[in-house]
Amino acid sequence: MKTSILLVGHGSRHQPGNDEITQFSNKWKAMNPQWQIETCFIEFADVLLDEGLDNAANNAERVIVLPLILNAAGHVKMEIPHHINKARERHSHVEFVYAKHLGANDNIFTIVKRRLTQVMTQLDMPDPKTTGVIILGRGSSDRVANGEIAKMARWLFDETDHENIDIAFTGITYPRLEAVIQKQVTLGMTQIAVLPYYLFTGTLIERIKRQIKRLQQQYPHIAIAHGDYFGFEPEIYTLLNQRVNTAMGEDTDTYIMECDGCSYRQLAEEHGHDHSHDHSHENKPEVAA
Questions:
Q1: What does the pLDDT look like over 131-140, one tens digit per residue?
Q2: What predicted TM-score, i.e. pTM, was given to this entire model?
Q3: DSSP codes of every residue in the chain
Q4: Among residues of the chain, what percentage have pLDDT more than 70?
Q5: Average pLDDT, whole number, for the chain?
Q6: Residue 270 — very low, low, confident or very high, per pLDDT cuts 50/70/90?
């Protein structure tokens, strides 16, 4: 079956952000010359969803629509599916397959840990117990999308020696960065590592840089540093490849759902045991049906 892949970026008013997505897409194409890859944006760019879907459908029997987006909120759950349905009406002979967004998983967590290590290096490797960590997301009205960031914070707490790990958001929801910095200073943190949970540069990344600069001036006795966004890390390309292979029916075991990241599942696999959802490590009584 002749297949096209449509990579859907968010789009930004800050042109360098759109340029980075284009560069990212070109690099991914070079890594996968066997695939026909098109690129479009949800907003703030020249090629938007309708045009991108039409381009991908030309001379194709199947189009795999792949959101280059970390968390599933309105764009992923409503806007992209709406445009796909309209494309199905325009191209009735083409099968449109909607692949999963990037999500919060072990690949993304590997990048989060790498960013924390990089920021700790900037701060000259201070004591993690006196170094607060803030994972800074975009913010959404979708509680599941916000919860994905909270999940990454919890995983980080489980796998590092940092005792104060918080989440903050740049907009839409709370808490905001300034309030969380104030809280961590009050708790006695002498260093704070801010980890932007973003894929590419854009207006919000530029805003974060200005915020950090002001906070450094506001708290001159506190060492505050921030990490880079995720975009060109190898794990992002790995996730995209997995999403495509799954959409093509070649990789059906990519998603592990709620057990993703479960150390008990990983231990069981190493010892050749199936993973049971009666998790003894949850210390919860069994309830009869």
A1: 999 999 999 9
A2: 0.87
A3: --EEEEEEE---SSHHHHHHHHHHHHHHHHH-TTSEEEEEESSSSSSBHHHHHHHHHTT-SEEEEEE--SS-SHIIIIIHHHHHHHHHHH-TTSEEEE-----SSHHHHHHHHHHHHHHHHHTTS--GGGEEEEEEE---S-HHHHHHHHHHHHHHHHHSS-S-EEEEESSSSS-BHHHHHHHHHHTT-SEEEEEE--SS-SHHHHHHHHHHHHHHHH-TTSEEEE----TT-HHHHHHHHHHHHHHTTS-TTS--GGGTT-HHHHHHHHTT-PPPSS-GGG-------
A4: 87
A5: 90
A6: low
Domains of the chain: 3-101 (3.40.50.1400), 106-226 (3.40.50.1400)
